[in-house]
Amino acid sequence: MADDQEKFEKQERANRLRQARVRAGISGPKGVYDASNGAIDINKYKGHESGRNGFSISDARRYAELFAVPLTWLYLGIGKIDDTDLPGASPELRRAFAALADAPRNVQSQVISFIEFQTGRRLVPLQSPQDQLRDQYERASRRRESEPSR
């Protein structure tokens, strides 16, 4: 009996995996390989999407990030495929934000500043400390160059 339940769950996961791939606009296992920059093996993915082989939570996490779907939906079937904190966001934007979540804080701050500037929520883009020092140095250099010689 447990064997039938395991087969059912494996097939349901495979169906959700296929649905997530199609929704992300990725065409087949070769497209998954390309979209992951070769990080996901084509044959392993084929086995997962066909339901022939089950996949682990770590595989599911990688797929959820690539396809920009909730991990809980993909692996457990809890919630909906479009449950997200980014309503209306494209799959590319969801993938970018998923990657940004693991980026260093200074990178996150720069991206947030850029987005706020581009959307009109900030009048001047926030600069990194290195850029601020460079700008101060350049202003001082220009001042010295424009001062008359004595």
Features:
0% strand; 150 residues; 8 helices; mainly alpha; 434 Repressor (Amino-terminal Domain); 2 domains
Q: Can you describe what's shown?
A:
α2 packs across α3. It is built from eight helices and no strands. It folds into two domains: 86 residues, Orthogonal Bundle (434 Repressor (Amino-terminal Domain)); 48 residues, no CATH class. The chain is mainly alpha-helical and 150 residues long.
Helix content: 55-70%
CATH topology of the largest domain: 434 Repressor (Amino-terminal Domain)
Shape: elongated
Order of helices and strands: HHHHHHHH
At the first level of CATH, the class of the largest domain is Mainly Alpha
Rg calculated over all Cα atoms: 23 Å
Structural class: mainly alpha
The average pLDDT is 81
Low-pLDDT sequence parts: none
Query: Would you count the extended β strands for me?
Result: 0
CATH superfamily of the largest domain: lambda repressor-like DNA-binding domains
Q: Any guess at the CATH architecture of the largest domain?
A: Orthogonal Bundle
Strand content: under 5%
Mind describing the biggest β-sheet? none
Continuous helix count: 8
Total domain modules: 2
Distance between the amino and carboxyl termini:
96 Å
What's the gist of this structure?
The chain is mainly alpha-helical. It has eight helices and no strands.
Itemize the secondary structure elements and their pairings.
Blueprint (H helix, E strand, L loop, with lengths): L1 H22 L4 H8 L6 H9 L6 H11 L3 H6 L14 H10 L4 H14 L10 H18 L4
Helix pairs in contact: 2-3
